[in-house]
Amino acid sequence: MAALLTVVLTIVAAVVSLSSQQCAEAKTTIEPCSGSDSCAALLGYTLYADMKVSEVAALFAADPAALLAANALDFAAPGAAHRILPMGLFLRVPARCSCAGGVRKSVAVRYAARPADTLATVADVVFAGLASADQIRDENALASVDPDAPLDAGQKLVVPLPCVCFNSSDNNLPAVYLSYVVQVGDTVPAIAASYETTVTDVMNANAMGSPVAAPGDILAIPLPACASTFPKSASDHGLIVANGTYALTAGNCVQCSCGPDSLNLYCTPTSLSGSCPSMQCPNSNVMLGNVSTHSTSAGCNVSTCSYGGFVNGSITASLTAGLQPRCPVPHQFPALMDPPTTVNHDSTYLPPLSAPGPAEAGGVMPDPESGSPSSSVQGGSFTLPKVSKANGPAGSVSAASLMDKPRQILPLLISCLVFHLQLCITL
């Protein structure tokens, strides 16, 4: 069996190497910029292994609760950061899109190489195609490093990740841009439909001459969003939240949501922190997010305590009151789901050649008592809203079952890789 696995890995390495030589370099939307401003962006990421929420967050230098909130997953559930997410799951990872070297990109990620890591596997496997080996090599001034040569264990790498701002607007409406890696079988019309936008909008955002994208290309997808109007003195100035999701601010004391009934930002207290500044509107007993109504013969008196930003460690809130023709209906929040434990998929996902070890980025932490991965995670199968099962990122099959049946997967591996090579040659 060991000999057969060696043959499989040799074939994989050979075909991937040949296909990388034949394929044209993947295209990424580039936004020229100047200055030091940044914006909120989202990175579309497909898990290459079972990973804890905290491990995914650490990989992208993000807050675990913020990662869950950006995917409308229950960020306040007990032990949410320690939940294990399944391989093949597609997530939207919040990131700051900065201006670096005259173009927009996220440069906050620092990755420590593990044994047997190469620039190619870090780019294609660990970061799921969001960065190329050449981009990582250039960012770290590693001009002489072979992309397939093993890196030194522990070597720190800056990983540049694609993002755009475009003034956080799309057709003059608030928008957050998602960096989406095109998968085999994707089409631009299907991607546009999955995110409830138009082919024309996707083409305009990516300066495309035709609605054609190749696997590995990275498209900037505009997502409708709710924008804040906080003053520049606020640390969360410019906060913007994609429709159907949440964002955490004010030291995780405040949660702001967008939709589903309107694209108006709505902020309320969270239960994540036990020590938060006052959230009471000045000169009143009304708390942040509260809306009180009083029906009269002339209409409805409505008072609202609204969040105004996090300034110098204080939560600012303002009370507004006015007469409206009718009383508003109770606010509808985006539905929060439990972190999933399985992924529904319609295609086969090729797992990485080497799985991460326990306690490493992407590893499954063993249960301290039994020494085996915890099986107490709650939740069911999951498909992220706005992502089509058929045309979104590929799902997965169990890595354990693949290793148990190498003779069954050998033809599948060869056929998949040959198909990939033929596709590249045609391109």
From TrEMBL:
Annotated organism of origin: Paspalum notatum var. saurae
Domain (LysM): residue spans on this chain: 178-221
Keywords: Signal
Region feature (Disordered): 344-385
Signal peptide residues on this chain, from the entry's feature table: 1-26
Name of the protein in its database record: LysM domain-containing protein
Compositionally biased residues, Low complexity: 370-381
InterPro entries xrefs: LysM, LysM_dom_sf
UniProt xrefs under CDD domains: LysM (cd00118)
Keyword Signal: yes
